[in-house]
Amino acid sequence: MAQRRALVTGVTGQDGTYLTDLLLAKGYEVHGLRRYAASAGDLPLFRLPGRRSVGREGALHLHYGDVGDAARLIRLIEAVRPDEIYNLAAQSHVQVSFDTPVHTGDVNALGVVRLLEAVRTLGLAGRTRIYQASTSELFGAAAEWPQRESTPFRPRSPYGAAKLYGYWIAVTYREAHGLHVSNGILFNHESPIRSEAFVSRKITRAAAAIAVGRRQVLRLGNLEARRDWGHARDYVEGMWRMLQQEGPGDYVLATGEDHSVRDFADLAFRLAGRPLVWRGGGAAEEGRCAATGEVLVAVDPRLYRPAEVNRLLGDASMAGERLGWRHRIGFPDLVREMVEHDMAALRGSAV
Question: Is 135 an active-site residue?
Answer without folding.
Answer: yes
